[in-house]
Amino acid sequence: MLLAFLIGLSFASTLMLVYVMSKSRRHVQLMQMQSSVIKKQVQELEESNQQLAFLNQEKIQLLSLVSHDLKGPFNRIFALAQLMNMANENLNQDQKELLGKIHQVSVDALNMIRNLLDTRRLDEKRIELALGKLDFANVVNSFVKHYRSLAEKKNIEIHLQVVGDTIIHSDKNYLGRVVENMLSNAVKFSDEKKKIECTLTRKDGVIEFSVKDEGPGFSLEDKQKMFQRFQPLTARPTGGETSTGLGLFLIKSIAEKMGGKIILESANGQGSKFTLELPVQKTI
Q1: Is pTM, for the whole model, over 0.85?
Q2: Residue pLDDT, tens place only, 115-164
Q3: Sign of CA pseudo-dihedral 88, 92, 93, 94
């Protein structure tokens, strides 16, 4: 009786061992299959990433090529429009209006091209500041004078107030890019017969340049995404100008690169005030 019990127990143990080994073998086979699938998916992902990297590099090169190739012709159009405008006494009113539109379109296109090139430099971390001592007021006056001629075509007045010492240690080129985009946006999004108030002041080791317009302002939703690139906002240009969605992204990025910041005060339907705040001495 005991012998029969032991034989039965041994047989049951053998069956159990066979079952466990069989199950373990299936588990190993399943793991191998899963590992093979994962390896294949990783390989496909790596190939996709390589293809995306190649396409992205191709896009960057194409963008650079097109931007540089377009910049030259538009610069010449802009220069010719300015020369014709300086000697416009023989033009009738319709011709003067057409000349004004050519001037506006060329300025708009050049600013768009510069924004695309600056965005590419930011992406590639190739923006290097050439710091030097300069008068911020001279930079502002130059761009205010330029944009007054464009604003006049929409019967918009641009006023500038400069208070105190405006000497700053900064990069003239990129400082100008921020000022240009701030003024461009104010003119672009303002309706006819409005006013734009510009103020340049120095206080407590910083210099502030502000541009206040009487445009549509920004909604709460706009404020949450306005400094991101290519983001559509509620406000639209009022004179047929183009908008790439890069201007606000660039002024914030460049301001921070120069050790400053952009401050926005705005309410929907009540205009906007953008302020560029920069340290008088930029340290790197």
Answers
A1: no
A2: 877 877 777 777 788 889 999 999 999 999 989 988 988 999 999 999 99
A3: negative
Strand segments (E) across the chain: 131-135, 157-163, 167-171, 195-203, 206-213, 261-266, 272-279
Asked whether residue 14 carries a pLDDT value surpassing 70, the answer given is no
Alpha-carbon span 212 to 24, nearest angstrom: 74
CA distance 142 to 119: 24
Find out whether 229 and 191 touch, Cβ atoms under 8 Å.
Answer: no
Give the dihedral of Cα atoms 225, 227, 230, 232; nearest 10 deg.
50
CATH code of the domain occupying 133-279: 3.30.565.10
Burial 14-38 (b: 16+ CB within 10 A, else e): eeeeeeeeeeeeeeeeeeeeeeeee
Token representation of residue 279: 């340290």
